[in-house]
Amino acid sequence: MHERIAQEVTARAPRLWDVALALHREPELAFEEHAAARLLTGELAGAGFTVRRGVADMPTAFVAEAGTGERPRVAFLLEYDALPGLGHACGHNLIAAAGLGAALALNSALSAAPGVGGTVSAIGTPAEEGGGGKVREVAAGVFDEVDAALMFHPGVNNWTWAPLTAQVQVRVVFHGRAAHPTGNPTEGVDALAALLQMFGALNVLQRRLAPGGHVQGIVTDGGRATNIVPERAEGLFGLRAATTHALDELVAEVSRCAEGIAAATGTRVEASRTDAGYRHFRDNDVLSSRFAQHLRAAGIPLEEPTAGIHLGSSDIGDVSAVVPAIHPFVAILSSDASDHTPEFATAAAGAPGRRAVLAAARALACTAADLLGEPGLCARAWARQREKAAAGQ
Questions:
Q1: How high is the mean pLDDT in each 10-residue block of the chain (393 residues)?
Q2: Domain limits of the chain?
Q3: Is 2-164+279-391 a CATH 3.40.630.10 domain?
Q4: How far from 164 is each of 8, 123, 242, 298, CA to CA, in Å?
């Protein structure tokens, strides 16, 4: 199976790279990835996959399936949205091409292995950069019958998994009373002053947060005129924490800060989440270690993430909360560089990107083949999933 997969990926390499470059040339923002969805679903349908478009009420989301329709069911996750002004500076064109290649290669290899059953899925996941397509798909039940969700991400390190944090945005609105600042200043209750106190309190809170914890805020409404005491002031705060449970505790603490400031300033406050946010990523090391073994065969060794480091957030976290999942990093630039930069966008259309796509497609497909064909592996992955969930990891 592994040898057949390697042959399939090699044979498809020119077309997979053409797909990656086509996505790179026509970057599309969150929920607007119409050309990308057409291209990817066309490739899958042409290879005999049954394609459902517009899943989870998102026009650019899709599920393509092949195989027996029974479990185990392994899903390759395809991201394809771009960044405003930077195009594919996060390399989602490479994620899509690798997931596509893995699905096509595995399905072809399975046709020559009659003793191996199960289902191969390619799931199109829009709006990772903002909007959380995977969050919507989880809520819509897209992953209810999936036994493993596999993807890779281009980066600046070769890591077996991604230490991605949980995140949410919280809107805080203070209500005071308008007045003229010199005509009747004692009648005013300054909502903006209360909001500024909020920033000060959160600066103190920031110093004692556990690793991975972070609060960053902006003023979204600070009043209308300098000769009117603001009766309303609004701030938007981005919160991150190492785990989803820690994030819930941080949201509660931020709300308590707001309530205390309101009591001290004579204002009224409303604090609320603007959306569900993203859960932290739960790595399934049963599967991520297997991916690392297969990637090493392609000449790319992976390491554990640097101890204590925490990165940004991704909606893969919500998938990993319900399904065994992997999200390794494969470097296309050196560790002193960064994604979300013009240099990263260039690498995503160059030789480093091509190497990562083909190596990741092969390793993803081989990992999935192991899960479908190796007795007990799927059960071990699910056991590890439950173990980590019980420990809050």
A1: 96 98 98 98 98 98 96 97 97 98 97 88 96 97 98 98 97 96 91 97 94 96 95 97 96 97 98 93 98 96 93 96 98 96 98 98 98 96 97 92
A2: 2-164+279-391, 166-273
A3: yes
A4: 32, 21, 8, 26
